[in-house]
Amino acid sequence: MSDHTILLKQSNLKATFQRINILENVEIHGHISIDEIYKQIIKTHPSLSLATVYKNIILMVEKGLLIEVPIAGEKSKYELKKENHIHLICTKCTKVEDKPHTKEIDELFKDMSQVESFELSKQQINLYGVCAKCR
């Protein structure tokens, strides 16, 4: 049984070829838009509709398998759920780069949550700017 099949079953989702293909493409590309996923999938499954891809991605986001990464002025990209990290997002080329979450950041959020009596359930840090390649 593949890792993707196991992830789907753990999330109470059937391991359909559409879902497995979506997860494979997200894993290969790291951060990818729905349109890019669709372009990759129709190479091997030309009868698959864009609506089916959208529906499955939305479902996998709801189940916590995929994370939506908003891109300013562009369509969101998606990534596999993983440990907390920071996104550096280029506003010119839309490249998304992951950077590790530091102990200092964890402490800041913990302190802020305690001061505000706020129960933090999830987090996503997105920093927008221009990458070295686009500068």
Give an account of the 3D structure.
The chain has helices at residues 3-10, 17-29, 34-44, 50-62, 103-115; strands spanning 32-33, 66-69, 77-80, 85-90, 96-100, 125-129. By secondary structure, it is an alpha+beta fold. The protein folds into two domains: 3-80, Arc Repressor Mutant, subunit A, CATH 1.10.10; 85-129, Dna Ligase, domain 1 (2-Layer Sandwich). A three-stranded antiparallel beta sheet has the order 1-3-2. A hairpin with a 5-residue loop joins strand 4 and strand 5 (96-100). Helix 2 crosses helix 3 (34-44). The longest helix is centred in the N-terminal third of the chain and has 13 residues, at 17-29.
